[in-house]
Structures are given as C-alpha cells and as structure tokens.
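Colleagues,

For the teaching module next term, I've prepared a clean inverse folding example: a structure given as tokens, and then the sequence designed for it. I'd like students to try predicting residues themselves before seeing the answer, so please don't circulate the second half yet.
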C-alpha cells in the first residue's frame, strides 16, 4: 500500500495549471473577443466551465492525501479547528485582495459615468454593496445569491470552503470504510450530481447548487485516493492508459455530451496520473507547467478582474468594448497581451499574497501537520454564469 507521502504532487499541480488555462480561454474568447469565438467549434471552450470539476476532484484527492490520516479514525476539535484555519488562511487573503480590486473598479466605473462616459451601470445587479458582504463571508453558494457576483469565479472557493468544513467528518466515514460503504458513497455522489445537473446534462451550477456540485466531486476525489493507496491502479497507470482516459474525457467535452462524464473521467484520470512514473509524469513535471500550477489560484482569481478592467478602459478610451472592432489578427494580439498580463499579475500575487500567507501558516501550530504530508496549495476552479463576458 502506498503511503500519503509518496504521491508526487508535481503532475497534479500541473493539471491545475492546465485547468486554469482552459478557464481563462473560456472567459477570454466569445463575448470579450468575438473574432476568437471558439465556442461554436468545440465544447472544450463552450463548456469550459467543466474544468472547475477537475479542480474539485483534485481537491478531494489531495485533501485525502494531505490530511486524511489525521481524521481517518476520529475528528478532534483541535485538529478540525487547525485544518479549517489553515484552509481559510490559504484561500482568503487573495480573495480579499481581488475583491478590493473589484470595489476599486466599480468606483472607477461610477466616476467615469459622472464624467459622461457610457461604461455601463456601476454597482449593478452583479456588484451590489450588500452582495460584497456575502462574498466576504464565503457564502456565495449558500442560496442567498441567484448568481455569482463581484468576482464571479470566487463562487467556487465559497463552495470549497463549505466542503472543507465537512471534510474531516467525510474522512471518518470513508477513508477506512469497507468496500461496500465506499461504493455507497460513490453512488450517492453520482446521484447527487445527477439531481443537480438536470439528469447529468448541465453541471454549470454555481450560486444555487455550487456547494453540492463541489461536495459530490470532492467525494469522488477522496474515493479516487482510496483506490490509489490500495495499489489497485498500479498496473493500469501506464502512460497509454492515461492518454486514453484523457482523450475520451476531453472528446466527450468536445462533443458537448453528458456533462457528468467530465467529473467521472477526471475521477479516473487523477489517480492514474498520481500513480504514473513514466512519460506522462515526466511531461507534467516540466518546470514551466509546475510553475503554472503553483500560480493557478492567482490565475483564475485575477483573470476576470483584468478582463473587466481592460473592458472599462476600452469603453472610456474608444467608446466600445475592446474586441468589438477587431479582426482575428488584432484579437490574437490582444489575447496574447492579456495572457501575458495575467501570468505576470499571478506571479506577483503568488509571491506577495499567497506566499506570505503560507509563511504565516508555517509559523502557526497546526495539529494537521502531524500527518507529515505536503502542504497543499489552494485547489479551486471557476466559471461564471456562462461563457459570455457581460
């Protein structure tokens, strides 16, 4: 049986980077750059919201790896509190910084309207002041909101934090359970996802059912970790098998088939990647991919703020959205510039916000550290209401 410490997180970290890149592509084409509207040509863009499901499955897997041993037998109050504080401190500082950026952006929009510019309505239905409080409390998926507000992508960290609260208790129920209980947990998770996704057809569930979506897929990730540590996938973790599973999952998304196939495919893919020591592991351990994964939380949190800021500047300077009059060449140039800016900002935020928070965690006693596991960077993904930029 594998121990938790033997999991090489580099390939899984790279998967997060790839997922974050697909989320950016999902938001940066279509409404923002109409000439680069790839949605009609492939579900990999039109249904880019499904890459959030990869984040949720990864999160369940890695949380089981990093903290499962602490909670597998029982939940002690001190250990639960240390775990929750650690996860809160890991995701919250960047969340607050990005929200502050959106407040500044809405204020700038209001000032622009006072100066006579047509830049849309400031503090509109997606950025009411009272909604800011809901976001600050990480209650975006509690049923209070009808759709994601302020920083739309942050709905997913609200969902994930609610699941974090339950994770220690899920660990007690699942991580040392027999096969029958694990099968029952998996069936319950799939049934839950079927119910909230209109029979598996539409997993684009955010403010209303986002926490349930996250919870079901988190459980799938935890079960995937159970399979991984049992060595049952050792002989199946060859690179050819992994490429086949990845291709089948991506092809299902490309065809815009049953949405539920995506998280099911991801739940098979993640333990296979974790167990691979061949070509796939080497490819996913390339430094640039690992670096992208390390800053992926910043990538997905900041990219929508940058999109809105560029859109506001364009409306002030030229009176229309930045992509309205651009052809394919101009749109590609803007896209490249935006990607470069997102990466630069993400590295900066990672170093100035995420890393200091991590250092703070290292100075804070945590019972969860007794597992000897790796400290896991925040795993989350995002989508907003649809693939059109409002």
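(Answer key — instructors only)
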């Amino acid at each position: 049986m594998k121990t938790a410490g033997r999991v090489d997180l580099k390939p899984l970290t790279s998967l997060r980077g790839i997922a974050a890149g697909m989320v950016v592509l999902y938001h940066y084409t279509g409404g923002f750059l109409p000439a680069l509207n790839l949605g009609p040509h492939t579900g990999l863009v039109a249904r880019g919201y499904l890459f959030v499901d990869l984040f949720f499955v990864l999160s369940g897997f890695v949380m089981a790896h990093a903290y499962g041993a602490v909670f597998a037998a029982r939940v002690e109050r001190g250990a639960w509190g240390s775990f929750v504080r650690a996860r809160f401190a890991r995701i919250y500082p960047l969340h607050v910084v990005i929200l502050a950026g959106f407040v500044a952006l809405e204020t700038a929009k209001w000032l622009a309207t006072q100066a006579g510019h047509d830049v849309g309505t400031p503090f509109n239905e997606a950025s009411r002041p009272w909604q800011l409080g809901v976001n600050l409390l990480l209650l975006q998926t509690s049923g209070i909101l009808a759709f994601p507000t302020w920083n739309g992508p942050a709905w997913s960290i609200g969902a994930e934090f609610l699941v974090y609260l339950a994770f220690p208790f899920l660990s007690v129920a699942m991580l040392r359970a027999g096969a029958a209980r694990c099968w029952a947990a998996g069936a319950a998770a799939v049934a839950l996802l079927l119910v909230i996704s209109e029979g598996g057809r539409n997993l684009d569930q955010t403010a209303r059912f986002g926490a349930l979506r996250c919870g079901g897929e988190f459980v799938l990730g935890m079960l995937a970790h159970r399979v991984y540590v049992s060595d049952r996938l050792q002989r199946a973790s060859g690179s050819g098998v992994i490429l086949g599973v990845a291709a089948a999952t991506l092809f299902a998304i490309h065809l815009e088939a049953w949405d539920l196939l995506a998280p099911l495919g991801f739940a098979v893919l993640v333990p296979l990647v974790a167990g691979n020591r061949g070509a796939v592991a080497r490819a996913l351990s390339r430094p640039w991919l690992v670096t992208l994964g390390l800053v992926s939380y910043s990538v997905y949190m900041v990219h929508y703020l940058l999109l809105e800021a560029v859109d506001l500047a364009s409306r002030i300077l030229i009176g229309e959205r930045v992509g309205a009059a651009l052809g394919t060449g101009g749109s590609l140039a803007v896209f490249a510039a935006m990607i470069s800016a997102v990466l630069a900002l993400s590295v900066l935020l990672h170093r100035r916000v995420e890393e200091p928070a991590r250092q703070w965690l290292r100075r804070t006693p945590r019972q969860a550290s007794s597992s000897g596991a790796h400290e896991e960077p925040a795993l989350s993904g995002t989508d907003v209401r649809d693939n059109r930029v409002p």
